[in-house]
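Researcher: Here's the sequence for the chain we discussed earlier.
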Amino acid sequence: MEITRLIPKVPKGLVVVITGSGKGKTTTALGIMVRACGHNLRTSMIQLMKGDIYAGEWDGIKKMNCQVELISTGKGFCGIQGNPYPYKEHRENAQEVIRLAGQKMESGQFDILILDEINNALFLHLVDLEQVLEVIRQKPAGMHLVLTGRDAHPQVIELADTVSEIIEIKHAYRKGIEPQPIIKPRFLFRREQDFLLERQ
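Model: Thanks. This is the structure I predict for it:
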């Protein structure tokens, strides 16, 4: 059987938002990285808020013979599961990601940029709405930009070309099943008002 390769007549870098309360947003972004590898595209994934709990993708992508990189910048999820770091440190980390994203876009070295958990970071005020909108606006025309995380802002959704919402139907953690190495229970965020004092 002959395999057809689809080549767009007009190449265009897309803005893709993967949001929702269900499991699989980062996993979807990692799938995009795998597919990009097959197309010989260069991908950079920057993870916000992740970094305190080992994730298999950190070593997994090192085994891929592709032009991909994964940078984990965070100190864990802000305000949950006894995370010891104050809001100020989480925000400083997230602000560094905004600067790093700009550098990746300006470098011309990548075809795809994935900002993992950026929607969460915006919801938690670790980054500002205008900063995220500016990242979208400054994206090179040929670059694909993927923004993951629950609670995507309406204005981010408005600027996106493709938006997918992952909805939880069932989840193992509700049965009291502990986290498994490759399929982790979702994290439960405190409500925003619960850590307002930390931001003052």
